[in-house]
Amino acid sequence: MDLGIKGKRALVLASSRGLGLGIGVALAREGADVLLCGRSGEQLEANCKAINSEGHGRADWIWADLSDERFVETATTAVKNKFGGLDILVNNTGGPTPGTTEDMTAEKLETYFLSMVARVITLTNALLPDMKAQGWGRILTVASSGVIEPIANLALSNTLRPALAGWSKTLASEVASFGITTNLLLPGSILTARLDDLDGAAAKRTGKSLEEIRADKEARIPVGRYGRVEEFAATAAFLCSQPASYITGSLIRCDGGAARSV
């Protein structure tokens, strides 16, 4: 299938590794020009070199930290200077530290709200006018399956990410007439360094081995295994495509059927 995004300009947040990088690679392979961003210049440069060597879409990078109060200015300036505008925005952020509700403090809530919610919204608002003017845009926000089924020991994530669901759904209704789609993509257990960290924390908390933790989790996934980054990224690329122009305001799961809700 031709996704119709050759030559489209995409910004992918938190894309030095993991899900963000996977999405950036998938978009570039469809011919999109991709701006990666994150906190590891060395890794981002290596990622761009690998993407550009494939000869499809062009990749560039910027150093940008979502916890930095200048993040939105840094990102919007880079988009203008490097691409002259934007067609696709992939809002991806790192996850907060594991913990229970009793571990949540006002300071932690404020810190993670700024990097996971507030700056995603303000960056989107800053980039929307150009999308409206050109009559085409894709806004895809990566959240977590905890939005629909809270995950044990991830109280901060379970609390903050649902805010993005309400925002994304509201925004979708406001911008649909401009040819802009807005969707939330919910990963389940996808093999990344973040998942390694969470499984390691679960093993330490429960006294089980890492192998036992993973076997228990995979047994509860109907597909019977963890997902691959490439599978998740392919879903993201489709939601950013021209053929997906009638999908907006949706929560899309990529979790192997793990969530038990309808």
From TrEMBL:
Family membership noted in the UniProt record: Belongs to the short-chain dehydrogenases/reductases (SDR) family.
Organism domain of life: Bacteria
The keyword Ribosomal protein is annotated on this UniProt entry: no
Molecular functions (GO terms): 3-oxoacyl-[acyl-carrier-protein] reductase (NADPH) activity
UniProt-recorded name of the protein: Probable 3-oxoacyl-[acyl-carrier-protein] reductase protein
Enzyme's top EC category: oxidoreductase
UniProt organism field: Rhizobium etli (strain ATCC 51251 / DSM 11541 / JCM 21823 / NBRC 15573 / CFN 42)
Matches recorded under CDD domains: BKR_like_SDR_like
Gene3D superfamilies recorded: NAD(P)-binding Rossmann-like Domain
EC annotation from Swiss-Prot or TrEMBL: 1.1.1.100
Keyword annotations from UniProtKB, A to Z: Oxidoreductase
